[in-house]
Design a protein that fits this description.
The chain is mainly α. The protein contains five helices and no strands. It has helices spanning about 5-35, 35-50, 65-80, 85-95, 100-134. It starts with 5 loop residues before the first helix and ends with a helix.
C-alpha cells in the first residue's frame, strides 16, 4: 500500500469528484436529449392503467412545470444510468486504502448490490407502477 500525505489524498478525492461530475454531466446531456423517449417509457404503465384509447395526455398547470419536469427527468435518469460508472470511480478511490483481504470481502457485496439495484428497479417498473396506477 502506497503511503500518501493528506494533500495527496485530497488531490485524489478532488480528481474522483471531478470524474464523477463529468460522468453525471455527460449522461445528463444525453438524457436531456432523449427526454421524450425516457418519459414515454416511464409513462407506459400509467397509460395502460388508464385504459383509454388515446392513452391520456400530460397537462402542465404552471408556467415552468414542463421545463422543471424535463430537467428533473434528465437529472434522475443520468444519476441512475451512470451509477455503475461513478460507483466504479468511488471504488477506485476507496480500494487503495483497503487491505487485500478487505477488498476481497467487499467485492461480493458490490456485485450483489448492483444486481439487487437492477432487480429493484425492474420490480418497481413492472409490479409497483402498474398496481399503483390501476
Amino acid at each position: 500500500m502506497k503511503e500518501m500525505s493528506l494533500v495527496e489524498h485530497l488531490e485524489e478525492l478532488r480528481t474522483t469528484v471531478i470524474r464523477v461530475g463529468v460522468i453525471v454531466i455527460a449522461t445528463f446531456i444525453i438524457a436531456y436529449g432523449l427526454g421524450e423517449y425516457i418519459s414515454e417509457i416511464l409513462l407506459t404503465p400509467l397509460r395502460s392503467g388508464l385504459g383509454s384509447q388515446d392513452g391520456g395526455q400530460i397537462v402542465y398547470l404552471g408556467l415552468l412545470d414542463k421545463v422543471i419536469s424535463q430537467l428533473q427527468l434528465a437529472f434522475w435518469s443520468s444519476i441512475l444510468l451512470s451509477s455503475p460508472l461513478w460507483f466504479y470511480e468511488v471504488w477506485r478511490f476507496i480500494k487503495p486504502g483497503l487491505y487485500d483481504h478487505e477488498a476481497k470481502m467487499v467485492r461480493p457485496f458490490l456485485i450483489v448490490g448492483f444486481f439487487l439495484f437492477i432487480l429493484g428497479a425492474c420490480f418497481a417498473y413492472y409490479v409497483v407502477f402498474p398496481l399503483t396506477f390501476d
